[in-house]
Write a structure and sequence with these properties.
Elements lengths: L3 E6 L5 H11 L5 E6 L2 H10 L4 E5 L5 H4 L5 E6 L10 E4 L4 H14 L14 E6 L7 H12 L5 E6 L5 H5 L7 H10 L6 H4 E4 L2 E4 L5 H5 L3 H14 L4 E6 L6 H7 L2 E5 L4 H17 L3 H4 E4 L13 H4 L3 H14 L4
Parallel strand pairs: 1-2, 1-3, 3-4, 4-5, 6-10, 6-11, 7-9, 7-10, 11-12
Antiparallel strand pairs: 8-9
Helix pairs in contact: 5-15
Length: 333
């Protein structure tokens, strides 16, 4: 996907280029960095490609630069003490990691300017749910995430009692959703997103809870607090929710989704279960059934565990079928 641009301008040899390279090497950094060693070249570039943020050395801050309509400007200072005034200063010779944290803090605090008011961020939610088991639900959810991840920042969240995630991805020891909600309940500082979120192919995923008891203990209000946190603190545009029956206030959770994909099976017992779910949905909601698309996933592949597994979901009959579903049954693109 196309990221917003942050320009780095500093005439000191190597500084702007090295820092821009550092930023671009960070996969989860929500901006694309461009380096400039000359303020005049920056101005020429900004006239056609106005960056959202500008990180510029004090020595390069000319009148011409100040006339540019760049929404947010941060001044790189060689002095540790910030200067008085409305401008935002950061110390340029601190560690790159510390500097990134300061820049990201400023980006998250910055209110929208008049130039940005035409765009309102919306965190899309695609729900993958079925009252049935062994119907290809999780495989479909992962494929949806991989496909959407080709075009936009997409985060997969598994909300099942037994995700099997720690065993399949070998991350039993990493921080996960249980740690996040513990901090939320106790008022402690929440773990950094980088420690909770991992990448898998085109898709990022939130390390799921390690125990079904933890999942059953997460209230609907806590889930919505997580979504609000992601809305404010991350650059994600799309969530793929792999929803299990253990989610608190299941029907309220489904109501939050823009679209719900429900894999189904043809046997008579499965059809009775589907009808029972529909009857309940009709009683509890006036519009929920309108969001639901039933799927007969006849091309579900054998999901062999190998390093190329995420990419394999995108191709063949299975990948083509899921792409068709997203295009025809959307909109999510």
């Amino acid at each position: 996907m196309k990221k917003d641009m942050i320009a780095v301008c500093d005439s000191e040899a190597g500084y702007a280029g090295n820092f821009a390279d550092y930023l671009n090497a960070r996969k989860k950094f929500p901006f694309r960095a461009e380096a400039f060693t000359d303020s005049e070249k920056l101005c020429q570039y900004a006239e056609k490609n106005c960056p959202r943020f500008l990180l510029i050395a004090k020595e390069n801050l000319t009148d011409q630069v100040q006339k540019l309509q760049i929404p947010h400007m941060i001044i790189l200072s060689s002095e540790k003490e910030s200067e008085a005034g409305e401008d935002r200063y950061v110390y340029k010779y601190q560690s790159a990691e510390s500097l990134v944290r300061e820049v990201m803090t400023y980006c998250q605090e910055s209110p929208p300017t008049e130039l940005e008011l035409g765009y309102k961020k919306k965190l899309g939610m695609a729900g993958i749910y079925s009252p049935l088991g062994r119907c290809g639900k999780t495989l479909f959810a992962l494929t949806v995430g991989q496909i959407l991840g080709e075009q936009k920042n997409t985060l997969y969240i598994n909300m099942e009692d037994f995700s099997g995630w720690q065993k399949s991805i070998h991350e039993a020891d990493c921080e996960n959703l249980s740690d996040f909600f513990y901090c939320l309940r106790t008022g402690r500082e929440k773990p950094a997103l980088d420690t909770l979120i991992q990448s898998w192919g085109n898709l990022d995923y939130f390390s799921p809870v390690s125990s079904f008891e933890d999942l059953r203990g997460i209230s609907f209000q806590e889930w919505t607090a997580l979504f609000e946190f992601l809305e404010k603190e991350s650059s994600y545009q799309q969530l793929v929710l792999d929803i299990g029956n253990g989610a608190d206030q299941l029907f309220s959770m489904l109501e939050l989704c823009d679209k719900i994909y429900m894999p189904v099976l043809e046997d008579w017992i499965s059809q009775y279960k589907i009808q029972q779910f529909k009857n309940m949905a009709e009683v509890l909601s006036d519009s929920l059934l309108e969001k639901i698309t039933e799927l007969h996933l006849s091309f579900a592949p054998c999901a062999e565990k190998n390093p190329d597994f995420p990419k394999s979901l995108l191709h063949g009959k299975w990948g083509a079928e899921v792409r068709r579903i997203l295009e025809v049954k959307g909109p999510l693109g």
